Amino acid sequence: MSESRSNTLRCMECDKKLSLTAIMCKCKNYYCNKHRYSDKHNCSYDYKNNGRDLLKINNPLIEPNKVNKI
């Protein structure tokens, strides 16, 4: 019996059959070792804005209290 194509993991870039150690990118697709980096496939995940958002959350702006003049 032939194995169903829908049951096997395949690289989204080169259609290579993947093993159990397949790598899932942040764009929610699986890739082989050759295409696992975002510059090697057409990645739709925005790393730049994600980094900016993390910096805003982890480093809030600290403003001093105003001093009232008498």
Characterise this structure:
The chain has one helix at residues 47-58, and strands at 23-24, 30-31. The protein has 70 residues and is mainly alpha-helical. The protein contains one helix and two strands, in the order E-E-H. The chain has a two-stranded antiparallel ribbon with strand order 1-2. The chain has one domain: Zf-an1 domain (Irregular). Helices cover 17% and strands 6% of the residues. Strand 1 (23-24) and strand 2 form a beta hairpin. The longest helix is centred in the C-terminal third of the chain and has 12 residues, at 47-58.
Helices and strands in order, then pairings?
Layout: E1 23-24, E2 30-31, H1 47-58
Antiparallel strand pairs: 1-2
In short:
The protein has 70 residues and is mainly α. 17% of the residues lie in helices and 6% in strands.
Structural class: mainly alpha
Would you report the number of β strands? 2
Q: Give the end-to-end Cα distance, rounded to a whole number of Å.
A: 89 Å
Give the overall form.
rod-shaped
Report Rg: 22 Å
CATH H-level homologous superfamily name: AN1-like Zinc finger
Q: Please summarize the sheet with the most strands.
A: 2 strands, antiparallel
Which CATH C-level class is it? Few Secondary Structures
Biggest sheet strand line-up:
1-2
CATH topology: Zf-an1 domain
Q: What's the SSE pattern? A: EEH
Number of helices: 1
Specify the helix fraction band: 10-25%
Uncertain stretches of 5 or more adjacent residues: none
CATH architecture: Irregular
Tags for this model:
70 residues; mainly alpha; Zf-an1 domain; 1 helix; 2 strands; 17% helix; rod-shaped
